[in-house]
Specification:
disordered N terminus; golgi apparatus; two-stranded antiparallel sheet; elongated; about 0% strand; Uso1_p115_C; 4 strands; mainly alpha; 40 helices; coiled coil; about 750 residues
């Protein structure tokens, strides 16, 4: 401090006896000395003194000396020492930190305000960027720190100024090759701030060979076992790739994905260092940017194929099954595996064959589901497992069918041990409400866009307890819905039912046939004391029963349900209940991203796929429950036509049976007529023979007897012929009636089709 005072005396001159200059006076004199001194040494000493005072008297230095310091960067550009002091002073003035000296004086940090003043003159930023070309440590390092301070306060404005500055980004990229680690490391932090949220800068940095340089730094630092610099490199890589298709394609085409695979080696079972866990977490985030659901589908598919071909998916699976992995790293690994196989059939098949090193060996998917339904596991991990299972089933009809097969009666006896289906169905009966929700949502994903699985699950039977008769899954879900008290469990069951009923008339018929199902849903929608989401989802499920109703259940046909809703609830109130769901905060959150996330258990309410379903079918339900007048006429007419057609079908069937019976009788009579005709002919022949014999031998009595038999046979034949005529008349009548009914049915069908269209 004495040295500092002596230095000030040499710069300012000795004060008058009995006077002690204030800090503000001292700063003002120093600024004046910088402005007026003709000697470089005097200006350098004044800048050194301003640097020393800039922490304690930041406000005074910034308010009175900003322009002077900026001019000094130009005036003494060739003197690196003076430039270094000037940059240090500016760093202190613009710093986002609050210095201890300021706290002692009770002044607030004003770095943001001075940054705004500094960058109003764009040439100031250009000057600082030019200082990066100087190799001297005491110039280059404060220039890096000054840019970092500006970015901390006014990131967007500084990003634009760097973009407009000639070769501004290139000058920053050159810092990564600096042999001095302090400068290189601070340059990494600067680039992380600079590239955040600016696609143009991200592209320029990427095409300045950023990925090559970053992988070189990571290798020199020891890979994932390295220090925090490795994490910084990975964070910069993450910034360059996140939501940037151009850089993602560049990364893929440059074969950088293959360089990630060797880094994913399992850690030591003895324990993970905290920094290794942080590095691994950052690496997994980089990987996920390439296969994020929001990316273009074609680019994601290409990256997924490379990840499988390069062995990266296999390494991820090994890490997943390794022991001793920290919980946060394991959670991120599960999410990474999920997105690497999401919607990719080959990767889904690969993962379905991964076996956990357990005794007995079990599929990795089953082991993960065991964690999901275990209430003792961390919430983040359970959410990640649900996401992984959802991604496994995403556009995977084979996987959905296999899940259903594990629950069907023919296979449950053949499959021994724990399966994914039995775990999820068992979770429906868990006392833990979150396990109920997870199980319902997971099961619902086996039904998404898969009519076959919906019908298969209708055959599934569950035994609530040993010795009790089996109950079909859908009625069992309805029974659980009526018994459940906690909203989270009820929301899970309602979302499962909604996925099941959508586009599946058979499932709708099963629900409507279940006793008290419609009454319960109606009562929930009417109950104003119910949770808003529970009422809304109950209304949506009831609406699906109308929209996909094929009138198979006579007592709850489409028109009957519409009338019930209108009478008991009111059409407008009913539609408001459904609309309330889309206005809820939980809906907005779940609809943004397919990955379920939650800070607390209570945050898990709605599933992403359910939100998509609701968005797609909300208008369909509205039109079904509140049709336009012409649609009402159409529905009524269609229902009447269905009844008429059904009646005429029954008449046609009855007439066909009668026609067949009369035809058989006619054929039998024709056979009898033919037989009598043969007998008559035979008797007539015998009569002729006997007449000739009578003339010769006097057999008149025998002839008379034969004549009587012939007359009787002829009379019988006449009777049969009359009966055949009657049968022919009946046949003609039935044929005409059938023809008329057929024409009438054709006309009815034609009219109904015309009305529908």
């Amino acid at each position: 401090m004495e040295y500092f005072k002596s230095g000030l005396k040499s710069v300012l001159g000795a004060p008058q006896p009995g006077q002690q200059p204030s800090g503000a006076d001292t700063v003002e004199r120093l600024i004046q000395r910088v402005q007026t001194s003709t000697l470089l040494e005097d200006r350098r000493d004044a800048c050194r003194a301003l640097k020393a005072l800039s922490k304690t008297y930041r406000l005074e230095v910034g308010a009175h000396g900003m322009d002077t310091l900026c001019y000094e960067l130009v005036q003494d550009r060739n003197d690196s020492e003076t430039i270094g002091y000037t940059l240090d002073a500016l760093c202190n003035v613009l710093s986002p930190e609050t210095f201890e000296e300021e706290e002692e004086r009770g002044t607030d940090s004003v770095g943001g305000q001075f940054t705004e003043i500094f960058i109003k003159q764009s040439q100031n930023v250009t000057l600082v960027l030019e200082m990066l070309e100087e190799f001297e440590f005491h110039v280059r390092w404060p220039a890096v720190k000054l840019l970092s301070s500006m970015l901390a306060h006014r990131a967007r404005e500084v990003q634009e100024l760097v973009l407009t500055s000639p070769m501004g980004v290139s000058k920053l990229m050159d810092l990564l090759s600096d042999s001095r680690e302090v400068i290189r490391n601070d340059a990494l932090l600067l680039l992380i701030s600079l590239t955040k949220g600016n696609a143009n800068i991200q592209k320029i940095v990427a095409f300045e060979n950023a990925f090559d340089r970053l992988f070189e730094v990571i290798a020199s630092e020891g890979g994932l076992d390295g220090g925090i610099v490795v994490e910084d490199c990975l964070l910069l890589m993450y910034n360059l790739l996140r939501a940037n298709p151009s850089n993602q394609n560049f990364f893929k085409e440059g074969s950088f994905i293959q360089k990630l695979t060797p880094m994913l080696q399992p850690g030591s079972e003895d324990g993970w260092a905290a920094q290794r866990a942080a590095n691994c977490h950052a690496l997994l985030q980089v990987l996920r940017t390439l296969v994020a659901p929001a990316n273009p589908a074609q680019a994601t598919s290409a990256c997924q194929q490379i990840m499988r071909g390069s062995g990266l998916l296999g390494s991820l699976s090994d890490s997943l099954m390794a022991s001793g992995v920290p919980a946060d790293v394991l959670t991120e690994t599960v999410c990474a595996v999920a997105e690497v196989m999401r919607g990719c059939g080959e990767n889904q098949t690969f993962f379905s064959q991964v076996m956990a090193p357990s005794n007995p060996p079990r599929p990795a998917l089953v082991v993960l589901l065991m964690s999901m339904v275990n209430e003792k596991q961390p919430l983040a991990l359970r959410c990640a497992v649900l996401y992984c299972f959802q991604c496994f089933l995403h556009r995977n009809q084979d996987g959905q069918a296999q899940l259903a097969q594990t629950l069907l009666p023919a296979t449950t006896e053949q499959v021994s041990g724990v399966t994914s289906g039995t775990l999820l169905c068992g979770g429906l009966f868990s006392p833990d409400t979150l396990t109920n929700w997870f199980s319902c949502v997971a099961l619902s994903h086996s039904l998404v866009d898969n009519p076959g699985t919906k019908e298969q699950l209708l055959r599934v039977q569950l035994a609530p307890a040993e010795g009790h008769p089996g109950v079909h899954l859908l009625p069992q879900c309805l029974a659980l819905l009526q018994q459940a008290q906690r909203p989270q469990t009820r929301l899970g069951l309602l979302q499962l039912l909604a996925q099941w009923l959508a586009h599946c008339s058979a499932a709708v018929g099963h629900l409507l046939s279940t006793p008290n199902a419609v009454a319960h849903l109606t009562a929930v929608v009417c109950d104003v004391s119910e949770e808003e989401l529970v009422r809304g989802l109950s209304a949506f499920v009831l609406g699906l029963c109308v929209a996909f109703n094929d009138d198979a259940v006579v007592s709850f046909g489409r028109l009957a349900l519409v009338q019930l809703i209108n009478k008991r609830i009111g059409t407008e109130a009913f539609l408001d209940r459904v609309a309330d769901v889309t206005r809820h905060e939980a809906y907005a959150k779940a609809a943004k991203h397919p990955q379920p996330t939650a800070a607390t258990v209570a945050d898990l309410l709605l599933d992403h796929e359910f939100c998509r379903l609701l968005k797609a079918l909300e208008n369909v339900v509205a039109r079904a429950v509140a049709p336009k007048p012409e649609e009402v006429v159409e529905q009524v007419g269609s229902a009447q036509y269905k009844v008429l057609i059904r009646q005429q079908d029954e008449q046609l069937a009855q007439l066909s049976r009668q026609l067949s019976q009369v035809t058989v009788e006619r054929d039998h009579l024709a056979a009898q007529v033919s037989q009598l005709a043969a007998q008559v002919a035979q008797l007539r022949d015998q009569n002729s023979v006997l007449k000739a014999a009578a003339d010769e031998g006097g057999l008149q009595a025998r002839v008379a007897e034969l004549q009587q038999q012939v007359a009787k046979a002829a009379a019988d034949q006449e009777d049969l012929l009359e009966l055949m005529d009657d049968q022919e008349a009946k046949l003609t009548k039935y044929r005409n009636r059938l023809k008329q009914l057929g024409e009438k049915v054709d006309q009815v069908n034609h009219d109904s089709i015309r009305m529908i269209h």
